[in-house]
Amino acid sequence: MTHRKWAEYHQLRPDQISELVDQTPIAFWPLGLIEHHGWHLPVGYDGLKAERVCVRIAQKTGGIILPVMWWGALGGHGDFLWTHYQTTESTAQILYTTTCQLVQFGFQVIVLLAGHYPWQQILDQELPKIQLDNPDILILSGTEMSICGEDIKLTGDHAGRAETSYGLALFPELIDLRELRSGRDLSVWPNSEMPPKEKWHPAVCFDQNDSLFGQMGQPADEASVDEGESAISALVDNLANKINAFLD
User: Fold this and answer.
1) Which of 10, 97, 109, 177 has most Cβ atoms within 10 angstroms of its Cβ?
2) Does residue 182 form part of some domain?
3) Distance between CA atoms of 129 and 149, rounded to whole angstroms?
4) Containing H/E element for 30?
5) For residue 1, is it within any domain?
6) What is the dihedral of CA 52, 55, 59, 62, to 10 degrees?
């Protein structure tokens, strides 16, 4: 297995970045969001998931990990307390500009791993032109469900069994399954007002008295570390092998 150094972009001095890019020209950019993820998961779940997976890949490939992009767009939780959605246009502009800069700065592999599934729409919109203009660069992009192409397709949900399993494998210290309990009132909503039913996402639980509030998919209390670890390990190995093969 190839072993190369990795580091976090924002902690490096310019000469250190240049040296590392010369050795391992790989950039990882975790794409996240601040969003209600049920009672048991942190609101930064999407970014944390993407970042921790990028770290695992970088441990096998080397490279530089950019700070998490916390400001995303789109989704079914815009009316939930502690959720911050931006406009699609502003988010897309940051994605495009930053990716072009990474190309300009000499990175040969760019990994854009999105923890928030609606990022897929923005990636599909903004990246094809960059890839077309730079055919010699490897751009790997998508969510855990899509980034490996046909090789591996992990399941996805929102704060349910799948995402909770991934979280238990990646950052168990930030998860508390005991918080999956009923008995909450309207104070969990901004201004203590539930959004009108016509604004509800059909697959999301909007009943604040339900222990599965905010979730979409199979119940989170069915999650397990083993399920999460098996899925994440397969994803990491697949992407690390692709990156190392490209650079070798």
Assistant:
1) 109
2) yes
3) 19
4) strand 26-31
5) no
6) 160
Dist CA 91 CA 215 (whole Å) = 24
User: CB within 8 A of 88, min separation 6: which ones?
Assistant: 73, 74, 121, 122
Strand partners, 109: 26, 138
Residue 232's Cβ-count burial label (10 Å; 0-12, 13-18, 19+) is buried
Fill in the amino acid letter for 15: D
CATH number of the domain encompassing residue 51: 3.40.50.10310
Spell 104-122 as b/e; 16+ CB within 10 A means b. eeebbbbbbbbbbbbbbeb
Q: What is the domain extent for residue 110?
A: 6-247
Residue 151 lies in a domain: yes
pTM score > 0.85 for this model?
Answer: yes
Residue 166: inside a domain: yes
Residue 243's nearest CA partner among 56, 75, 104 is 56
- The number of domains in the chain is 1
What are the average pLDDT values for consecutive 10-residue runs of the chain, which has 248 residues?
81 98 97 97 98 98 98 96 97 98 98 98 98 98 97 94 98 97 94 94 94 96 97 98 96
Phi and psi at residue 107, in whole multiples of 5°?
A: -70, 135
Cα–Cα distance measured from residue 236 to residue 28, given in angstroms and rounded to the nearest whole number:
13
